[in-house]
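Record 1 of the preview.
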Amino acid sequence: MLKIVSILLVLCAGTLADPVLKPQIIGGTDAKRGDNPHMCSLRSTAHGCGASIISAKWAVTAAHCVVGVSPSARTLRCGTILHASGGKDYKLTQIIIHPDYANPSQLNNDIALLQIEGEFDLGTQDSDVIKLPVQDSDLTADAVVTVTGWGRLRNGVNDFPATLQTVDVPVVGRAKCTEQNRNILPVTTAMFCAGLPEGGKDACQNDSGGPVKYNGELVGIVSWGNQCALPNYPGVYTRVAIFRNWIKQNTGV
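->
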């Protein structure tokens, strides 16, 4: 996730990490094999962002992970809970960034589609699709969602896990989250927030693009936040349901 370090966001086109985007999971636990078969690592020479398999040929991630990036410069590693080993690597043939992701400094409409060469190996314990939500559906405040990723384990420290991390956090109402982030960025209807009032559990750098699950559906994508796991600053996630029709129009899924 992009982590906000100041009101002025400095976005680096063509890179997978950004000081304002969400990186890794803080306060989580090691994921169990088979619990997140949709999870992929979007990488150049090493892990950079997360992504989720939504069909035999398509995955979804955050737009800020792939702005200015050529498909040939990235691969997806899927089918493993160890980002540095195991699984299978897939070449990308196409990246589709949402057309309304026009102002990266605002991080609105932070979603992108990834098409691979060939097809994912699906239907196994380690690799499978995740269901998508109904168009315009929304989460209620206090619904508990699950976030997964290989991002930082501590705020501001380059401490990364070998094993996929998972953490459960409650949804924060949009009005409350808007007020909490009033001096950071606008929280739009294309976003939702989740986190504990006391902090301590959150996505962080290099978790960007990864999945947020609720009732077995991909309801969110790790997007941004004010640093990581701070009190009264919940993580902010792309609301996938807003983009359900756009996903179908571009992928047939």
